[in-house]
Amino acid sequence: MKLCVFDFDSTLMDGETIDILAKELGIEDKISKITKETMQGNIDFYESLTKRVRYLKGLKEKQVDEICHNLPLMPGAKETISELKKRGHKVVIFSGGFRNATAWAKDILDFDADFSNILHTSHGYLSGNIGGDMMFGSSKGDMLQKLQKLLNIDRTDTMVVGDGANDLSMFKFADIRVAFCAKDILKKEANVVIDKKNLTEILKDNRCM
């Protein structure tokens, strides 16, 4: 194994960032319902993402950063990334979530790079608009192919780890496909399934090393 790509929300982080942000506006139930349907593959990712972000319009940028800098990490996240890096693997994050969270997590977890989305702000408040690297259902697969080519790494030396439908596109280009506490739609395409909520379970599987 040379390249390990992790999803962020509900994989390295214990929860969904957008649902936690929505709680500040009292609309957590509305947003989380859409998030759940999206991760199960019932709603197009781009349509879901842009719709949910519009609901966040008016949230203070300072509040967003404070929340994103205090997100709960998944049990075993630090230990797993540390061990993978000790073994010489590149560890990269692909997130349909937000740079506010992944850039903070990079300093905590010490992975090599993160690709995510940017919440647009205006005068210190969220405008309800978003842009970035991971806007579409196909984004993770597209980015993985580019990264493999750049690093000269084959799919046989690639492991991907995720939990939801928007991870399917990167599953197509990796020989080791880990479904971590995942939705059924992703488990069907995985060859490693972990249902215990601790990422160190990955280290116990020889296929992932």
Determine the CATH superfamily.
HAD superfamily/HAD-like
CATH topology: Rossmann fold
What is the count of β-strands?
7
Helix content: 25-40%
Number of domains: 1
Give the spatial strand order of the biggest sheet.
4-3-2-1-5-6-7
Uncertain segments of ≥5 residues (pLDDT<50)?
none
What do the pLDDT scores average to?
A: 95
The main pleated sheet reads as: 7 strands, mixed
Strand content: 15-25%
CATH first level: which class? Alpha Beta
Shape: globular
End-to-end distance, in Å? Answer: 6 Å
CATH architecture: 3-Layer(aba) Sandwich
Written as H for each helix and E for each strand, in order along the chain, the element string is EHHHHHEHEEHEHEHE
Describe the protein in words.
- The protein is of the alpha/beta class and 209 residues long.
- Helix 2 runs antiparallel to helix 3 and helix 4 packs parallel to helix 6.
- The N and C termini lie close together (6 Å).
- The protein has nine helices and seven strands; from the N terminus they run βαααααβαββαβαβαβ.
- The chain has a single domain, classed as 3-Layer(aba) Sandwich (Rossmann fold), CATH 3.40.50.1000.
- Helix 9 links the parallel strand 6 and strand 7.
- A seven-stranded mixed β-sheet has the order 4-3-2-1-5-6-7, with helices on both faces.
What can be said about this structure in brief?
The protein is of the alpha/beta class. Helices cover 38% and strands 21% of the residues.
